Structure to design on (195 residues):
């Protein structure tokens, strides 16, 4: 099938629009978390925003064949403006899950049907990534709700995202003893991406 007449070309532009907006929403959410001294949540939104930018770039590059042209799309995009960080996280969890299933799964299946195997693989692989995003936001939302973001039932490690100090105990320190940044910088060691 000719790419120009495919549904896949439109799906790629939809995905590009969605990823671009998700990235911005997460940058905004990161600022909101920062204002609330929830630096660990700020870090997760910033980390995820960078991944959405990469997804946007991958989808965008798949449309190179139509360089110089426009692709018209329709689409519905969320307004996730909430005062409560819990609601912001839950909305992110929901949107990521939708991208995973049904949206990118269906886009991948359609691309495969239309004979664009590389694009199909991209949609299917990114779909699975969005599931990890959804799970991560959901887990943080749950922890925030249960007041478990900085308190654990069992002894665990806590890393200060500012200076890297690792504390072991049931609760993150109120203030980092090394850099004196507040508790909001501590992340459970098992959630730290680089250990
Ligand atoms: Fe994405
Ligand atoms: Fe995502």
């Amino acid at each position: 099938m000719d790419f120009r007449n495919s549904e896949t070309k439109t799906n790629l532009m939809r995905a590009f629009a969605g990823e671009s907006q998700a990235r911005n929403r997460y940058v905004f959410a990161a600022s909101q978390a920062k204002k609330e001294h929830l630096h660990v949540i700020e870090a997760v939104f910033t980390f995820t925003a960078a991944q959405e930018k990469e997804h946007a770039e991958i989808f965008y590059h798949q449309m190179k064949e139509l360089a110089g042209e426009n692709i018209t799309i329709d689409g519905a995009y969320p307004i996730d403006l909430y005062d409560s960080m819990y609601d912001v996280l839950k909305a992110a969890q929901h949107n990521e899950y939708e991208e995973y299933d049904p949206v990118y799964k269906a886009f991948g299946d359609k691309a495969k049907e239309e004979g664009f195997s590389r694009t199909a693989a991209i949609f299917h692989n990114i779909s699975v990534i969005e599931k990890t995003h959804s799970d991560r936001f959901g887990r943080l939302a749950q922890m925030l709700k249960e007041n478990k973001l900085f308190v654990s039932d069992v002894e665990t490690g806590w890393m200060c995202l500012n200076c890297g100090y690792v504390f072991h105990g049931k609760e993150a320190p109120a203030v980092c003893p090394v850099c004196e940044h507040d508790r909001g910088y501590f992340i459970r060691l098992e959630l730290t991406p680089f250990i």
